[in-house]
């Protein structure tokens, strides 16, 4: 990556952090309780987050019975609803989760001191936590001390990145889930995050983006493209072990570039003339009779009606149509540039149809119809071994 690209990426990250800071500062006006800002709590023994990690790795559980404190910067809060009674703090290369007895007023960028007496150092399924923490035992020392995320590849993740604020680039969601929302009505959303190299070769897909159904963006659709995403990385030891990713805000999801995996068009329509099936739905509803479908005319079969289409090479995808068999059929698709016959419907046009569809529409004699949109009515039944439509008569050509 060139220096200019790196510099641009850093500027983008800084700008995003500034926007997040402004949003989170304004969020204090919500009905979140205010953490302790005046009451002076004892300091006691001062632990670093790194020291807490060492204790967790060697003791697993530690109950704080004496005065003690740990300092850190808040990297994720409850403002979006994606976390509940929880926040994350980071100091240098180490981070840890704060799991509290009630909601807090902490905001991203708060520099805080956590009074540990009465709390417990433990874990939740592989993620280190300070549990049983009373928000009143947190003192805010300063605001807007945002930490820049660590930009890494998913293949570079180690146990040291647990609870860290990170950024992944060149990532996208799988094509078959992009029409889904971040979360469902009564369940968390959990989606694989695919990372690619500059040549669209899949690097890794081991990170799962997990979103609460209470998140403010839970009903938003997943991004359709590829790009950059910032959030908190945690480890979940169940189901064989999984790295989970928590988004802080939609401002930090910038996935607007063309995806590597081609988008899948979901079935739509009811099969009527006013609301025809799209081609994806026409493929799903094979066997139904008297239905309307709508799609782009992307080609015609080079094999006779009695033959079988075995590969994409059996199709004339245009713009030149010279095979005599091109007169009998149309290949319809949901996308104008489609060239995969398995995503298409083969429409057989009988010569004796009262509407004259074969005489008026076929690409051998009317090549200018290529890439036009057509609606046709018929029986959804295989043609030449592929998803098709027979007994075609009525049509509307745009």
Counting helices, strands and paired strands, the structural category is: mainly beta
What is the CATH architecture term of the largest domain?
A: Beta Barrel
> Which stretches are poorly predicted, pLDDT < 50 over at least 5 residues?
1-12, 14-32
Q: Figure out the total of helices.
A: 4
- Compute the number of strand runs: 23
The CATH topology of the largest domain is: OB fold (Dihydrolipoamide Acetyltransferase, E2P)
Order of helices and strands: HEHEEEEEEEEEEEEEEEHEEEEHEEE
Strand content: 25-35%
CATH level-4 homologous superfamily of the largest domain: Bacterial OB-fold
CATH class of the largest domain: Mainly Beta
Oligomeric description of these chains: single chain
Tell me about the largest β-sheet. Answer: 9 strands, mixed
Number of domains: 3
Helix content: 10-25%
What distance lies between the first and last C-alpha atoms, to the nearest angstrom?
A: 47 Å
Description:
The chain has 398 residues and is mainly beta. The chain is built from four helices and 23 strands. The protein folds into three domains: 3-142, Bacterial OB-fold (OB fold (Dihydrolipoamide Acetyltransferase, E2P)), CATH 2.40.50.200; 150-257, OB fold (Dihydrolipoamide Acetyltransferase, E2P) (Beta Barrel), CATH 2.40.50; 279-397, OB fold (Dihydrolipoamide Acetyltransferase, E2P) (Beta Barrel). The chain has helices spanning 3-26, 49-59, 279-284, 357-361, and strands spanning 45-47, 62-63, 68-76, 86-91, 94-100, 111-115, 120-124, 127-133, 138-142, 150-151, 165-172, 189-196, 202-211, 226-236, 242-247, 253-257, 291-301, 315-316, 329-333, 345-348, 373-380, 388-390, 395-397.
